[in-house]
Amino acid sequence: MSKEQRARVDAMMRQPRPEGPRSVEEIRAGFEELMAHMIVPGDIRTTQTTLGGRPALQVDPDNGRRAGTILYFHGGGWVFGSPESALSLTGHLVAKTGFAAYSLDYRLAPEHPFPAAIEDTLSAYRALLDRGEDPSTIAFAGDSAGGGLAVTTCLAARDAGLPLPAAIVAFSPGLDATRTGGSMDTKEGIDPIFTRASVERTGAMYLAGADPHQPLLSPAVLADLTGFPPMLIQVGTNEILLDDSTRLAARARAAGVDVILDITADVPHVFQSFAGVLDEADEALDRAALFLNQRIRPRAAAHTSAG
């Protein structure tokens, strides 16, 4: 069954696209239309709110929330995407864990290039801390560019002297603006979504001339991850960004960080979006929920269970 599911998803993602470069507005509209077809669980509630001065979508479980918060960063190459486009991911994480999520509508390039997105995500984390949330009950999570932001926001928080969150979950994260991973070339054509040219185009919008050789842009090759919280990195083998994940995991391991590198065969970028359609997506989200349940533990509860 799963082999047929994977083939259908691959074919769907290879649908012919308009010829020639599309405008930013066309890219954004096309992505929202695509993601509107993803399955969102019914047992959640969404509320528009603000966090750290930016709009955010609060996602709550229908049947009462547990003590814990997922701060979620959507994907879209730092150029497109929204909390709504990521709702299949945040919704399933909330439904499977019982934690609430805040999905941040951070500023996008090219209107707001690097480091605007990281400024917004760090402000959102500060806002959670300022209102009294315990960092041991907060996890960063994100997909694609948002998975990269989960890592770089943690770097920025550490550099700002803030306490770090309890965990990081990154789905197919974008972690290398230098584009030096071998998979950028070996997976060209195997990846049904991205080409080197496509990621370099959106990447240039985010960089806006900034040197990619810095930790906040290329953590997979340049970041010091010392002191980082436990990380779960999920990625598929059919991705040109595969080596972003494998190299970050190696850096984390070398820095003494508790890291799980979870690679699924023959699936595309952010395959977890296909929950309800692709068995591997549901299973990966189950593993992510288990990881979050193990890592988000209020101090009082952790103390009680220990003694």
Please characterize this protein's 3D structure.
With 307 residues, the protein is α/β, with parallel strands linked by helices. It has one domain (2-12, 26-296): Rossmann fold. The protein has helices spanning 2-13, 24-35, 87-97, 116-130, 145-159, 183-186, 196-207, 219-222, 242-254, 279-295, 299-306; strands spanning 44-51, 54-61, 69-73, 100-104, 138-143, 167-171, 231-236, 259-264. It has an eight-stranded mixed β-sheet, sandwiched between helices. Helix 3 packs across helix 10 (279-295). The longest helix has 17 residues, at 279-295. It starts with a helix and ends with a helix. Residues 302-307 have low confidence and may be disordered.
- Strand share of the residues? 15-25%
Large-scale geometry: globular
Overall tally of structural domains: 1
Write down the Rg.
18 Å
Quickly count the helices.
Answer: 11
State the main characteristics.
alpha/beta, globular
Draw up the topology in text.
Blueprint: H1 2-13, H2 24-35, E1 44-51, E2 54-61, E3 69-73, H3 87-97, E4 100-104, H4 116-130, E5 138-143, H5 145-159, E6 167-171, H6 183-186, H7 196-207, H8 219-222, E7 231-236, H9 242-254, E8 259-264, H10 279-295, H11 299-306
Parallel strand pairs: 3-4, 3-5, 5-6, 6-7, 7-8
Antiparallel strand pairs: 1-2, 2-4
Helix pairs in contact: 3-10, 4-5
